[in-house]
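User: Could you write out the 3D structure of this protein bound to zinc ion? I've included everything you need below.
Assistant: Certainly. Input first, then the structure.
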Amino acid sequence: MNTDVRELYQEVLLDHGKRPRNRRRPDRVDRRIEGDNPLCGDNITLYLAVEDGVISDASFEGEGCAISTASASMMTEAVKGKSVDEAAALHDSFHRMLTGVNGNGSNGNGTGKLAVFAGVREYPVRVKCATLAWHSLKAALDSDRSNVSKE
Ligand code: ZN
């Protein structure tokens, strides 16, 4: 990655960290999940509205460092309008990008602009900040499935 691209990526992260999108309490909530990262002190509450298997709204509240806030901001933007299955696949791609197998993360192919987080991999203590929102998403999606099977 050349320096210009790296700086552009950092700008995107800073922008979302300072002016997070979708940080609000929504009118409609189907799934509500709280997540925290005690290593850094980040915490978020994730809200999803799911209609006919599609995430019609995604938003969050909470406080955290710039990376966790930017991650929650971009995650909610990325999954809104996606099906539950697509969102789960995106979670897997994001998780693979940041953790990988045997420490070799993917280059973020298939994650679109979420690839800005690939650089976080170089700072292991920050990986949990970047994945907090995504772990919460996964928990919310899984709770969806368990509720469905109970009905
Ligand atoms: Zn953090």
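The longest helix spans residues 124-150.
User: Perfect, thank you.
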